[in-house]
């Protein structure tokens, strides 16, 4: 048996049901409907916290990386993911939390960034690189971030508070259109 370069011996020994690929695709489809409880404009897939979906003989394993270790929504997300995959009829589902490498806002998809803007939250700087392993970034905090208003596009904005409705967001105001908005902080 010839293995792809990334395949491991354990994967080669694991019996693969012919239905694995459709089951995994149906699980991914179900996961795209699971909304983040703190930012319900984004799915857990848009947010980039779903690392992998693996079919096993006894069910589906969903690998998640929480946005940060103290995120209060992690348990709700875990249960929502399990419920969605089970409801799609491809379970039983189980969740594995993988904390390394740590989640970064670079993992938010381009579609997720668009949805954040439409929801009225300024997305973090940067973009979805598609890479899951991102080097540590050293960010100088001396100069204030230039945050674009999600409503009018102006960068003439000011930070009102380091924290918004959740610890991962800051509260800003646009000086051009005078509207307040939240900014998803880059991590």
Overview of this structure, please?
It is a single chain. This protein is of the alpha/beta class and 187 residues long. The protein is built from five helices and seven strands, in the order αααββαβαββββ. The strands form two sheets. It has a four-stranded mixed β-sheet with strand order 4-7-6-5. A three-stranded mixed β-sheet has the order 1-2-3. A hairpin with a 5-residue loop joins strand 6 and strand 7. Mean pLDDT is 83; it is low at 1-18 and 129-134.
- The DSSP helix count reads 5
Helix content: 10-25%
* Relative strand content: 15-25%
Radius of gyration, whole Å: 19 Å
The topology string of helices and strands comes to HHHEEHEHEEEE
Large-scale geometry = elongated
Sheet having the most strands = 4 strands, mixed
Averaging pLDDT over every residue, what do you get? 83
What is the straight-line distance between the termini? 42 Å
Contiguous runs where pLDDT drops below 50 for at least 5 residues: 1-18, 129-134
The total of beta strands comes to: 7
Strand order of the largest sheet: 4-7-6-5
Structural class: alpha/beta
């Amino acid at each position: 048996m010839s293995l792809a370069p990334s395949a491991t011996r354990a994967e080669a020994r694991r019996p693969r049901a012919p239905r694995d690929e459709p089951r995994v695709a149906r699980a991914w489809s179900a996961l795209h409907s699971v909304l983040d409880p703190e930012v319900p404009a984004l799915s857990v897939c848009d947010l980039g916290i779903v690392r992998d979906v693996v079919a096993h003989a006894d069910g589906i394993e969903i690998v998640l990386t929480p946005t940060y270790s103290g995120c209060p929504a992690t348990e709700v997300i875990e249960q929502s993911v399990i419920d969605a995959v089970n409801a799609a009829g491809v379970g039983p589902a189980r969740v594995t939390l993988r904390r390394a490498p740590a989640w970064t806002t670079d993992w938010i998809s381009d579609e997720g960034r668009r949805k954040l803007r439409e929801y009225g939250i300024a997305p973090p700087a940067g973009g979805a690189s598609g890479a899951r392993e991102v080097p540590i970034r050293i960010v100088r905090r001396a100069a204030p971030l230039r945050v674009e208003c999600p409503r009018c596009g102006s960068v003439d904005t000011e930070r009102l508070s380091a924290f918004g409705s959740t610890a991962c967001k800051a509260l800003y105001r646009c000086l051009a259109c005078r509207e307040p908005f939240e900014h998803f902080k880059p991590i």
